[in-house]
Amino acid sequence: MQFSTILSLALVLSPLAVSARGTLGFSLGARRPNKQCKTVADYEADFDALKGNAGSTIVRTYMIKDINVPEYPCDVPAAILPAVKAKNFKIILGLSYVACRAIATTADTQEAYDSEKAALLSDLTSEYAPYVYALTIGSESLYRGVSAEELLPRIKDAKTTFGKLVPCIGTVDSWNKFADGAADAILTSGVPTFLMVNAFGYWQGKDITDATATYLDDLQQAIGHIQRIVGVDTIEIWNGETGWPGDGGSNYGSAKAGTLNQKTFFRTGVCAALAWGVNVFYFEAFDESWKPKSTGDTGAQGDETHWGAFTESRVPKFSLTC
Description:
Layout: H1 3-13, H2 16-19, E1 24-27, H3 40-54, E2 58-60, E3 65-66, E4 74-75, H4 76-87, E5 90-95, H5 110-123, E6 132-137, H6 148-162, E7 169-174, H7 175-179, H8 184-187, E8 194-198, H9 208-230, E9 236-242, H10 259-275, E10 280-282, E11 294-295, E12 301-302
Parallel strand pairs: 1-2, 1-10, 2-5, 5-6, 6-7, 7-8, 8-9, 9-10
Antiparallel strand pairs: 3-4, 11-12
């Protein structure tokens, strides 16, 4: 870990970083190992494991209508919101209107957005709204080729539609799409009140010895650019994803999968960001063996089934306290 990187991140986050520790949340899948949709009871068991082992009481999801397995379409809020209420959790709902990259069957289209929106209108009632911390529109849409000018009207529409129930509404994207100005039209619009920045030392192909410095530097670049554009206190910013694959996962360049490296990155990277006041979502909560191989930008296939901090049976792979 490079002290200069940690110091830069601390300066970007000041004064919040010195006054409050960050919150740890987990990205949560919607399916059982047999590909079927999780039930309310499944989610309640997930929440018990997260709170009991990591002290975490907030999760994020990616889709309203999970159609990644066509024979088992999942209405995610219908099952997860009652569990969130029962266990007194908070949730960030993702209205992403695009399938996960391992499947990539759904495009970023207005039709897909309208379908997700209609489903959420049915599920998100005043009973559950107090437990919804934020709503994000799009899932790395800019990274996948959607322009800020295309995405912004959907964020505006979601804010108009859901803003009275969910005050925090925005988007989530890769760190570089914030750092390089691709999202500036969204930032300067005055529409989003909430942003999530995804950053992975692993997906930069870094050896575990360099991964933490890369991760924190990427966060610093993205958050620094956002705050230069809109000011320090205008938009709430979270680290939307970070993590490392455990045993059985795929290597990526010099980044080697393995539970020991996973544990190391959590201890040196995630814990460092939390210590400086960054709110972090760890990707992901539980292994997901149902997922097929994913294909990256180079055409190489990779395994995304072993990224969980827990096994599928909800056993933690390492200590999840900092």
